[in-house]
């Protein structure tokens, strides 16, 4: 209920700051409607991207090769997220990932990206993470305590990212943020066979020397278009996929074990997913997916009385709940919205229906 009350409070505060038309536009926006995934809700700072990385999937999703800042103002984006019925608001609320389906720190969207993060931090307080291939601005140090910055790199030469800043400059920009006390994680994404693995040690060593301590390895997803573009760069993904599809992104089956051990040997903490880095940066915990649990699970103490109170307030009768193996078991069927909201509010899976 505490989380629900925080959500209502944030909505009220933001409503008072926005005009009627601004509220309507924000409520109609997909940020107000999309259910978050276990790893959180993604926030779009722009539409499209001109960087044309060879492995990028946004063009197959219909996004353009140029960028326009996203239409909502910072207050509107905070309001849209707060009104999203699936989202838990607050410091332990839904994880927020800024910069999906675009690059947030393009010159055209940089100001908007920082504005979005400031508004989310100030009015909602949810844990924020941003992922970039550009050089992140130093003002990030003032956005949120625990803000997590992912420096995204595929190899040290940037062979597949010809329009992005040089990877070595990205690492140096990350190092500057590290010096200012920000959480910065190396995001080796995606792992492209024959490119990332070819000189991985050089990349990891350079990152360690720059001060990076954490790394995530991200999987390459391919469509037929991406496979063709990669072929033009001399990369053949066919040994790693069974089929290709024009729009469906197929994750390649690439064994990461060798990469993970190389990183561990160099002293890196290897995290299973980007959201794990957000959780780690904010000293929190989460057990929402099979990659976890992440962080200190002793911090995952769902207040069952609160969960019960919320469900009864939502109109469910004869509710009985219990904790079992880092999940919450509810004896009655509850609708998807309540299930997702409770999962976001507790960071624990909610299993529903009759108990066995
Ligand atoms: S920077 Fe990101 S969004 Fe832009 S082309 Fe590269 S991978 Fe795609
Ligand atoms: S358990 Fe870890 S990897 Fe899974 S959603 Fe939570 S933070 Fe992400």
UniProtKB/TrEMBL annotation:
Positions of the Radical SAM core domain: 31-269
Gene3D superfamilies associated with the record: 3.80.30.30
Keywords, in A-Z order: Iron, Iron-sulfur, Metal-binding
Name of the protein: Radical SAM core domain-containing protein
PROSITE patterns per record: RADICAL_SAM (PS51918)
GO MF: catalytic activity; iron-sulfur cluster binding; metal ion binding
Domain of life where this protein originates: Archaea
């Amino acid at each position: 209920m505490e989380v629900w009350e925080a959500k209502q409070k944030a909505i009220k505060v933001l409503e008072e700051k926005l005009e009627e038309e601004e509220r309507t536009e924000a409520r109609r926006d997909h940020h107000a409607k999309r259910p978050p995934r276990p790893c959180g809700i993604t926030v779009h700072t722009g539409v499209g991207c001109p960087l044309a990385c060879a492995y990028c999937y946004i063009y197959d999703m219909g996004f353009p090769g140029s960028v326009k800042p996203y239409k909502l103002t910072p207050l509107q984006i905070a309001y849209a997220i707060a009104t999203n019925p699936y989202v838990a608001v607050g410091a332990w609320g839904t994880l927020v990932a800024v910069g999906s389906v675009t690059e947030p720190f393009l010159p055209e969207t940089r100001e908007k990206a920082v504005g979005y993060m400031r508004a989310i931090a100030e009015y909602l307080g949810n844990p924020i993470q941003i992922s970039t291939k550009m050089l992140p601005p130093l003002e990030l140090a003032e956005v949120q305590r625990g803000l997590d910055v992912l420096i995204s790199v595929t190899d040290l030469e940037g062979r597949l990212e010809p329009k992005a800043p040089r990877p070595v400059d990205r690492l140096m920009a990350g190092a500057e943020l590290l010096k200012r006390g920000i959480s910065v994680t190396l995001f080796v994404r995606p792992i492209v066979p024959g490119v990332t693995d070819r000189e991985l040690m050089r990349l990891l060593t350079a990152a360690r020397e720059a001060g990076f301590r954490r790394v995530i390895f991200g999987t390459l997803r391919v469509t037929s278009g991406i496979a063709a573009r990669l072929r033009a760069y001399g990369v053949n993904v066919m040994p790693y996929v069974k089929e290709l599809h024009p729009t469906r992104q197929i994750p390649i089956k690439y064994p990461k074990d060798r990469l993970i051990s190389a990183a561990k040997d160099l002293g890196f903490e290897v995290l299973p997913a980007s959201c794990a880095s957000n959780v780690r940066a904010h000293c929190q915990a989460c057990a929402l997916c099979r990659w976890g649990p992440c962080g200190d699970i002793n911090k995952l103490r769902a207040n069952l009385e609160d969960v019960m109170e919320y469900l009864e307030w939502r109109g469910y009768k004869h509710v009985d709940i219990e904790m079992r193996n880092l999940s919450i078991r509810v004896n009655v069927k509850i609708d998807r919205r309540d299930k997702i909201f409770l999962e976001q509010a507790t960071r624990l899976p909610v299993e529903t229906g009759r108990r066995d």
